[in-house]
Give the backbone structure.
Amino acid sequence: GDSVTQMEGPVTLSEEAFLTINCTYTATGYPSLFWYVQYPGEGLQLLLKATKADDKGSNKGFEATYRKETTSFHLEKGSVQVSDSAVYFCALSDRQTGRRALTFGSGTRLQVQP
Amino acid sequence: DTGVSQNPRHKITKRGQNVTFRCDPISEHNRLYWYRQTLGQGPEFLTYFQNEAQLEKSRLLSDRFSAERPKGSFSTLEIQRTEQGDSAMYLCASSLATADTQYFGPGTRLTVL
């Protein structure tokens, strides 16, 4: 079945540092890929997505590129802020079956220190 | 606010009691999904509806769980005879059937004592 593997956290960075959170996936079909973010006490929010190979999703300074050859969708940001502290989830949606239910990774907690 | 809403936000119950949660999706969305999230883990798919039809149930959804979406609007998730292992955050999401992007509600946190 489909699966998503994320790097374990917590990831602790100083403000303005460069961020990378690794995500790799296994899918039987040709999935869409997502990053969701969960701030403390809040629900999941879509951060960015990509639907085909070599697509780059971007939002709020975050970027991720759909790499079919390495089955990866790593999240990057050039300069993190304290307000970026949250849990980040990589997910995929199986378009082949049409149901589009999301398969999530276990999440990576990011802590940004001033 | 036209986002996905869930009620209640928190529920504490004793083992063996029944509980019911409600989800109101974004009004034009015809798909509605339920997920369960335990501490330190990502959400896991439970079931989904297209309009009023329940199209799939995960093997995680035991016989004690039932979900409905009458008239294709709001949905309810009922857990009968709750167990301590049911303690989790229950998340609802909605989308258009033709779209990949799901929009999540704030969740209902269930604690079974």
User: Anything to note?
Assistant: DSSP finds no helices and eleven strands in chain B. The two ends of chain B are 33 Å apart (CA to CA). Chain B touches chain A at residues 4, 31, 33, 35, 40-45, 48, 55-56, 91, 93, 95, 100-107 (CB under 8 Å). The longest strand of chain B covers residues 88-95.
